[in-house]
Structures are given as structure tokens and as C-alpha cells.
């Protein structure tokens, strides 16, 4: 359905239409806004990836902490 949607000729046609609608004076402003939006999207997706990775590794760290606490309580019980 969307095969070949972003071919160079299509992108050129879109650029011409945008140029006609907004004019050459607004194009740099639109480009900056698009760039900022893309940057925010990348940062947000990278943050989501980091959070997901943290959630995956978090149970492992939690399990290790529980095991260490159990070992510490066992050693404390044997000393008394």
C-alpha cells in the first residue's frame, strides 16, 4: 500500500507544495521545528529504551540484593 511512497520524485513534489504554501521565508523556521521535533523524538525513544533496559536488569539486581540479605540474616542467626 505504501510501497515507493518516499521516492525522490515524491519528496521533491512535497517540497515544492510546501514551498508554495508557506513561502521561502517560512521554510527555515519549518525546518528548524521539524528538526527539533525529530531530536525530541529520538531522545524520548532513547530514554524509553534505557528505561526498558533498566527494568529488565532491575529484577536481576533485586534478586541479588535479596540473596545477599538472606545470607546476611543467616550469618546473623548463626552468631546468636
From TrEMBL:
Subunit info?
Answer: Forms a complex with TatC.
Q: What is its main location?
A: membrane
Cite the entry's keywords alphabetically: Cell membrane, Membrane, Protein transport, Translocation, Transmembrane, Transmembrane helix, Transport
Tell me what topology the record assigns in the membrane: Single-pass membrane protein
Q: Which InterPro entries match?
A: TatA/B/E, TatA/E
Q: NCBIfam families, from UniProt?
A: PRK14861.1, tatAE
Q: What is this protein called?
A: Sec-independent protein translocase protein TatA
Per the UniProt record, the lineage of the source organism begins with:
Bacteria, Bacillati, Bacillota, Clostridia, Thermoanaerobacterales
